[in-house]
C-alpha cells in the first residue's frame, strides 16, 4: 500500500525518478540526526537536463518555474533514498535556489516558486519553508535552475 506522500505524488501525476548520481566529489545527501541535507539538484528528466540556458534569454520565467518544480521532484528522489519513505518527512525546512540569468533579470523569486509551490502541494503546511534564491551567471551542464534542500525527519 502506498504511503500518504506517495499517494499525493500520484494525485499530482508525479513519479519519482532514480536519484541522480553526483557529477563531482560530493555526496547526493547527508543525514545527521533527524536532518537530511540534499545537494543541489538540476532539472534532470530521463538522465538529461530538460531546461538549459539563461532565464529571460533562452527560456521564459514560466518555463524556468517548471524547471524549479522538476528540481524539487529530484530533491524528493534523494530524500526517498536517504529516508526510505517520504512519509518520514516531518517538514521541509529550507530550499535554496540558483537561477542562471543575466544581471538584468529580476524575477528569481517567481522562478523559485515552482519548487516552493510543489513543496506545499506535496506536504501541505509541512512543506512551508525558509528559502534563499539567487541569480548566478551559469550552472553545471548549462542547467537553467538548481535547487538544494534541507528536510526534517520524524
Question: Can you describe this structure in just a few lines?
Answer:
The protein is an alpha+beta fold and 154 residues long. It has a single domain (4-15, 31-153), classed as 60s Ribosomal Protein L30, Chain: A (2-Layer Sandwich). The protein contains 3 helices and 7 strands.
Please provide a written account of the structure.
With 154 residues, the protein is of the alpha+beta class. The chain has a single domain (4-15, 31-153), classed as 2-Layer Sandwich (60s Ribosomal Protein L30, Chain: A). 31% of the residues lie in helices and 28% in strands. It contains three helices and seven strands. It has helices spanning 4-11, 61-83, 108-123; strands at 29-32, 35-41, 44-45, 48-49, 89-100, 130-136, 145-153. The strands form two sheets. Strands 1-2-7-5-6 form a five-stranded mixed beta sheet. The protein has a two-stranded antiparallel sheet with strand order 3-4. Helix 2 crosses helix 3. The radius of gyration is 15 Å and the shape is globular. The model has no long low-confidence stretch (mean pLDDT 97).
